[in-house]
Amino acid sequence: MKAKRIIIVANTTWNIYNFRLNIIRKLIDEGHEVIVMAPVDKFIFYTETLPQVQHIPIRHLYRDSVNPFQDIRLFLEFVNLYKHYKPDLVLHYTVKPNIFGGFAARLLGIPSVAVVTGLGYSLIHEGWINRITRMLYKFSLPYHRKVIFENIDDKKLFEDEGLTLSSRSMSIKGCGVDTTAFSPNGDGRKEGLIIFTFIGRLLYDKGVKEFIEAAQLIKSNDHIRFWLVGEIDKENPSSIRNDDLMRWIRDPKIQYHGATDHIRKFIEQSDCIVLPSYREGMPRVIMEAMSMERPVITTDTAGCRETVDENINGYLVPVKNSKALAGAMNKFIALDTEARIKMGKAGRIKVMNEFDDRLIANHLYEALQNCWNGKK
User: How far apart are CA 219 and CA 330, in angstroms?
Assistant: First the structure.
C-alpha cells in the first residue's frame, strides 16, 4: 500500500498530547507521514518523542472566540495550509477544525474526517451560540467522508437533528487509555480512609457543584475525604467561580489539590473516582481510573453510561442529582474491602476489552483506510 500524507488537526497541542498519540503512532507504524496542526502550547514537547511528526502551528484558532471575522481568518489559514501541504486525508478534531477545516478541505477537494469529541459548552447550553453551532455543523459535516462520534448518544442526536447521515457516521469509544501507563502497580490507598476524588477541569458542567453537595450530604466521618483535583478553566463559560471554590474548601473534609500533570498519583491514592458530568464524549479520567482498578461513580448520560456496568465496576446516578450521588457514595462506603477490590478489577477487565488505546487506534485506522480508499 502506498504511504499517505495525513494531517491531524486539533484546537490545542494539549489535546494532541493527551488524546491523539495512539493514532499518530499507529499511522507512523503503518508507514504514513503525519503532520499535526494545532496552536502551540507547553505540550509541544511531545514532538521530542515523535521526531517523525511535523508540527505546524495554527495562528488563528481561538476555541472560545465567537468573532466571525476571526473564524474567516481561520478558514483562510486552513485553505492556505492544506493547499501548501497537499495531504491525502485530513483528520479533524474538535468543533472549529471540524467546521472550518471541513469547509477548507471541501474547497480543495481533499478527503476529510470529522471527529466529534463531545458536544461542548456551545451545544449543551441553549442560546444563540448553540443555534449558530448547529447551523454550521449542518452545513459542514456533509463535506466530510466520515463523521466519527465518541459515544452512541451523540451519534444518534446528530442524526435525529439532521446534522449528519447515519450512512456517513460511526461511533468509536473515545480515544482510549494507555493500559500500560495506567496499570494497577502498587496501592497508594490509606488503610482506614475512604477517599472520593473528582479529577478534571473545575466546570459546573462537569458536576463539581453536585460533587461538593453530595459530600456535604454524607454523614460527618473522620475516615471519609473528598478531593478536588483540577484547574479552573477561566476561558470556559462553565468555569466555577473563585468564591464558590473558596467556600467549598472551608469544609475540612474537602481538600483541593490544584491542577496536576500527575493524575496517576491521585488515582492511586483514591478509593473511588467520581465524575458527575452533565455530558461527555467519552470520560477519559473514568477510563484511566478503571484501568488502575479503581471503582467509579458517574452519571447516566451520554458517554459516561458506556463506561459503567452497574454494581459491577461502579455506579450510575442521574444528572444534576446530588442526593442520588450521595446515595451511591454511601453504597460504596458500605462495601467491604474485598467487594471494592472486586469492583476495581472488573473495571480493569472492561477497559482491556473495550477502551485500550491500541484497540481504539486500530478501529480508527480502519475507518481512515476506508475513507482514503473511497469506501463508506
Answer: 9
How far apart CA 166 and CA 143 sit, in angstroms, is 14
Q: What's the CA gap between 146 and 136, in Å, rounded?
A: 17
Q: 5-176+356-372, what's its fold? A: Rossmann fold (3.40.50)
What's the CA gap between 89 and 73, in Å, rounded?
22
Reported for 83-89, long-range contacts at CB under 8 A and 24+ positions apart, including other chains, are 83/108, 85/5, 85/7, 85/35, 85/56, 86/5, 87/4, 87/5, 87/6, 87/7, 87/35, 88/4, 88/5, 88/6, 88/372, 89/4, 89/6, 89/7, 89/113, 89/368, 89/371, 89/372
pLDDT digits (tens, 9 = 90+) for 61-87: 987 777 888 999 999 999 999 999 999
| Residue 160 amino acid letter | D
Domain range summary for the chain, segments of one domain joined by + = 5-176+356-372, 194-354
| Distance between CA atoms of residues 31 and 220, nearest Å | 58
pTM, rounded to two decimals: 0.90
Q: Strands 89-93 and 169-171: what pairing?
A: unpaired
Superfamily assignment of 194-354 in CATH?
A: Glycogen Phosphorylase B; (3.40.50.2000)
Residue pLDDT, tens place only, 122-154? 666 677 777 888 888 898 999 999 999 999 999
